[in-house]
Amino acid sequence: MKMKYSFTVIILLLVATLVSGCMAVREESYSQSADIVTTEYYDDSSAGNMVSTEADYGGASTVSVDRKTITTVDMTIKVDDAAVVMDEVSKIAVASGGYVASSSVYDSYYDSSTRKEGYITVRIAESEYPSFLENVEALGEVTSKSVSAQDVTEEYIDVTARLENLERQEIRLQEILNMAATVEDVLSVEKELERVRGEIESLTGRLNYLEDRIEFSTINIRVTEPTPITRSWGIRDAISESVNGFISMVNALIVLVGYLLPLVIMVAVFGGTFVAVRRRMRR
Questions:
Q1: What are the distances in angstroms from CA 57 to CA 53, 60, 69, 158, 167?
Q2: Cα-atom radius of gyration of the chain, to the nearest Å?
Q3: Which of the 8 DSSP states describes residue 227?
Q4: pLDDT by residue (tens digit) across 186-210?
Q5: What CA dihedral angle connects 10, 12, 16 and 22, to 10 degrees?
Q6: 71, β-bridge pairs
Q7: pTM of the full predicted structure?
Q8: What is the C-alpha to C-alpha distance for residues 203 and 156, in angstroms, rounded to an integer?
Q9: What is the pLDDT of residues 43-76, one digit of tens each?
Q10: How many Å apart are CA 22 and CA 42, to the nearest integer?
């Protein structure tokens, strides 16, 4: 009896262990499925939070690995022939894998002499612009130079994350549209889909602009010729002052005649009248 009783107790313990194990497995499976549902719901309804979370968690690696900067260079060089140097700068830009965005050459007047000046804006790949600057600086004397770098890493990450979110929303809305049963549902989904696509186009344009500015540095170059030195030994200045004095005197006489002419006319009229009256009285 004792053996049977012990055997029964052992069997009951084994059954209880198996039951508790099954319950634990079921609870674990339930919790995993609940986690999956929660994650999917978070994906659908909290897109904005996901963007900020990705940005927050990815910020540390972005700061140390992949900075996004827009480089702009402004410089002035003095050369003997501005037109020739402008052509050389264009050739160097093309050889460096870049292109000329704008250029102009014009005459600059200084006293009675002229000199040529020019402006040229080129876009050079970020990796090539240091060597490009060295080649340009060898063409003349650099009189001024400034380099600025605008950090757009945060904006780039934000625009990229928002664009990916909107693209996922577009796919889901398209799936919902295919399942819509009524006209009202179709119109509602299409309206939301149109809004999402508009935002996608806007963000895509901004992202393309940032990528272009990041990939290609903007270099503004002002090309000038030396100021001509002229010496007149004072003769030219003396002649110029004499001519100006004569012209001023003539102008003053004309103004004086203009003021005196009405007075002379009045005196002549009254004088003539007075003489005529006196002659009649004598007769």
A1: 6, 7, 21, 13, 21
A2: 45
A3: P
A4: 898 889 999 999 999 999 999 999 9
A5: 90
A6: 149
A7: 0.54
A8: 10
A9: 333 333 333 334 443 444 444 548 899 999 999 9
A10: 30
